[in-house]
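Suppose you are handed only these lines of text.
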Amino acid sequence: MGCCNSKVDKPSKKKAENLKSLGEPLKVAAISAEKPKLVIQKGKVGEKYKIIKLLGTEKHGSYFQVMNVKTNVERFLKEYIKAKTSKKTLEQVLESIETLYGIDHPNVVKITEVIESDESLNIIAELCTGGELTAKISKNKSFSEKDAAKTFKDIMLAISCCHANGIVHRNISTKTILYQNQESNSEIKLVDFSLSKKMKHKHALKEPIGSVQYMAPEVFDKEYNEKCDIWSAGVVLYIMLVGRPPFGGHKVNDIVASIKEGKLHLDKSHCQHLSGEAKDLLKKMLSVDPEARLSAQQVLEHQWIKSYNNDTISSIPLTEEVFAHLIRHHSESKLSDALFSFVATQISDSAEDKILEEQFKAMDKNGDGRLTLEEIESGLKLLSPGTNVDPKKLFSEIDRDHSGFVGYTEFMMASRNWKKTVQKEELEKVFQSLDIGSDGQLALNDFKNSFPGIDSSEWADFFKAADANQDGLISYEELKEYLISRA
Ligand SMILES: [Ca+2]
Ligand SMILES: [Ca+2]
Ligand SMILES: [Ca+2]
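From them, the structure of the protein bound to calcium ion can be written out as follows.
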């Protein structure tokens, strides 16, 4: 597969009209700073991704570590073979993907593409290589309270963001929390939304599902709400701190009885090392009465979490620089947003991302995964006290989809150091992945294929600005110049 041919400088015979003859190319997901919509691309996944490693096999199909053949970006791929999957299951899978699309948080795994062929449905997501929380616990036996509190806060931030969006995960366990990479300070990601559900009203959920050991008592009674996730997270916290589950038993029935009874035995010897604050939080998360159980935001405000996570905005490095970008950035059009979003999916700087992510979390005072005008305003006051930037104007520019909140992606898009990003060598890969037929020039249809839904007047403006030699095609140098001038 021709992934790395460097035809970038060769003259091109391509004309915008002749593209149709190249057949139906795979579409790149149209990612923009606006609220993402689920775009199912039609095509063969093997034309776009090659398999690096088989990670596992289930009854519906396998899951793999894969690599984009044009950009070399590695991803996670889960396949559902249609011959092995019922129509109902496929519908549920699509529903859960739709649900996950609505969540935009650094600790929630991101689906990047969905590709469907006659034979299979393929979900492509960001790749986590650090393994499950389960593996980390069995390796270390248990966590110190200090280490647990950092990881657990991120778990709760992910859950809090789901709940703020009306989404119940329903399968929180040490198996659905993954480390992004092998580094000791790796981020965690909440994954596997296959059982997740959008809540329409209180006590709306009826199906008794999940992993038994983590299931809340009311789930067995088939009437419950988002508080079931708090219970499961309480079980996760208990396992992290104690090294074994709180409610055990030899048979499933024994475990269920033990959960319904809800006795924690925090005075027993295996819990002796726990601080009073840790015990208090466990009790309040594992309260049999869901009404008395803490909410995700209340957990985040609990003294145990706070005492080990005392980061304030000012304790995070480089924040002023981030704010400077935030203030300077002004995207002029939907097309420009889409182009820069696409660049962001292909060129990432993990060190920069981490700083921006910490900045976002520090500004997100109530931990619901989105920034209000007040949260942006107080961050601005703290870091740029003398600034004459109007926070309302700044806010409305960053809030691209006019939702009244600045989401994580919106924040990242606005605060990234674009000048640095677009001058990186990887920009060539961005160009190649847009270049259908790999002839070294981008015609209007190359762009339209990757960025659907842009008005023709915007395309005309773009070509006027970017096509320096006016030959109707955009070369690599022209694209680069255009992006630099607008970064
Ligand atoms: Ca917030
Ligand atoms: Ca928004
Ligand atoms: Ca040109």
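What can we learn from it? The chain has 20 helices and ten strands. Residues 467, 469, 471, 473-475, 478 surround calcium ion (ligand 3) (CB under 6 Å).
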